[in-house]
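cache lookup: miss for this entity combination. No prior model stored, computing from scratch. Input as submitted by user K.M.:
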Amino acid sequence: MNASRATRFRLCLLATGGTIEKTYDAHEGRLVLGQPVIEHLVDGLTHPDIAIDIQRLMAVDSLDMQADERAAVVARIQAIEQAGTADAIVVTHGTDTLATTARAIAQQIPHPTCPIILTGAMRPYRVADSDATQNMAQAIMAARLVAPGVYGVLHGRVIAAERIEKDYERLTFIERDDVDRS
Amino acid sequence: MNASRATRFRLCLLATGGTIEKTYDAHEGRLVLGQPVIEHLVDGLTHPDIAIDIQRLMAVDSLDMQADERAAVVARIQAIEQAGTADAIVVTHGTDTLATTARAIAQQIPHPTCPIILTGAMRPYRVADSDATQNMAQAIMAARLVAPGVYGVLHGRVIAAERIEKDYERLTFIERDDVDRS
Amino acid sequence: MNASRATRFRLCLLATGGTIEKTYDAHEGRLVLGQPVIEHLVDGLTHPDIAIDIQRLMAVDSLDMQADERAAVVARIQAIEQAGTADAIVVTHGTDTLATTARAIAQQIPHPTCPIILTGAMRPYRVADSDATQNMAQAIMAARLVAPGVYGVLHGRVIAAERIEKDYERLTFIERDDVDRS
Amino acid sequence: MNASRATRFRLCLLATGGTIEKTYDAHEGRLVLGQPVIEHLVDGLTHPDIAIDIQRLMAVDSLDMQADERAAVVARIQAIEQAGTADAIVVTHGTDTLATTARAIAQQIPHPTCPIILTGAMRPYRVADSDATQNMAQAIMAARLVAPGVYGVLHGRVIAAERIEKDYERLTFIERDDVDRS
């Protein structure tokens, strides 16, 4: 017999910008953060038993993320985590300072009660051969499976916040050995 | 400091056909299982620390899968699992009898030493609005995170083999309550 | 100095169905003519000085087009041509009997006052590697350039109605030499 | 009866760069002219009776095109036109100075013996919602239909070289009234 789950998994998705959301502006002749993209990306995925609440915080290139902006991201996550309104939180973020934000969250919330996953993309969703769909899909899958904690998810890897490092040569995330290096 | 994992995660991907691999044959004017597709799907994903070994078993619509074909799928999985050459196994399969094959595997291999994940798609990879990329990406992510066992992964859900059921109305997989119903 | 044309080119686009409009029905597990597609195809093109009026006549596979349906297509074209409300007419049609309809139009309207272009596709618009966009774009371009008459346009070729023949081996349209063969 | 044309239509396609060929460089985090794209665009089109000879001249943003580079483009076209080896010539070019190059060609070749068509795109081929495929398809169609001369083809419009003007507001080409303004 079939019994559908009465409650769906509650996922809070916080959008902060980053390469994943860049789109081509034909007037300026370059990629910009001009319009929301995450909503369309999620729309193209199928998650019948996940209630996805998208909250748009900002739309910045993470290289330009200011201290107060990063603090705002951390504060929002803390508020959601404390309210207990989400079974997991996924944050889309530029890859350049994703590790910095991850560590800030881990520091501020040393014992989270739910998984907090940061992801992004090396190629914008609206550009050919993008890794955006894969990363978003895998971040959502990981959000349902990992123990509470703060992680980065990219290219099929789940890495604890303290260990995330961007590999600029191979354009992916890797796991560093030295835990104490912030 | 950065230390790359010397050993990559070893994933064995067995392709059996199904809707996920159907392509349009302009001569016949319909979708057919005429050429391998899984290889291209995987090629479009980025998994720098996963060694993906694709083995093509067959290319059948799962409604047409014969007893001996299903047995061949189970036998191959058993051989790989026993050889210990894979850290996880993902099987792409038609959705109509994916549950049947999953249960056959669970029966034959009651205590697997690695995750065995079955997935597929409701819409072919080579057709608009396909769920193929999402399901493959999430199956691979789940293969790295779940405990050894036999599961179906589709649309962001991980369901134990004994509980998988295809929901023909909503065109997804659901989890049944009644474990003893085979 | 720039002077924009006060009057835009008036294109009437009649949709009759055909392979070009087939979409995947996940319930039936096959391609069907279930929802309008031409509107989306045209939406994806940019024609700032063409006023495109889409009229949906029917949605049939051209192999199944009945005599009265074909007559309805011809009658509608005749009405538009006589009313003089279009500078050109483009008809999307299944490729199997496109030539038949083209000849019926040419017979009924021996001296058209505008170009009448029939086109379609060998692969549906909503399937990978489709020729739909190319054919639609080229049919619209031809509609602006050719002398009044009845033509089939496919794969970069413009062929007079009496000469159109479907090449089932190479899956394209060719021009036959023998004009009198209807 | 079917008689295939013994001689195919000979199209010479000269690639000079421009927005149409820009691709995302994940290392630099921006769009660049780093790899040839026109070959792939043409590969995705179907032209069974056109022999397309692609000649890559350069890969520059047309805002940066130097006088000697523009002269090289004109010289190559002149050589091909004089040799009579092409039934038509299509040039892919950045849209910013496409009009300049068109006029230079028209000046150098006042009585061409074949159509010479310049086209490009407002959005790169490898970016979402690109007009590249439409413009290329329509440029090729126009090359078969127009009288010998020099033209710009974009967004379904064919404009004589002397009249082409880029509309920076609506991001398309328009036809100016004043012929003598170079």
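stored under new cache key. The first strand of chain B starts at residue 9 and ends at 17.
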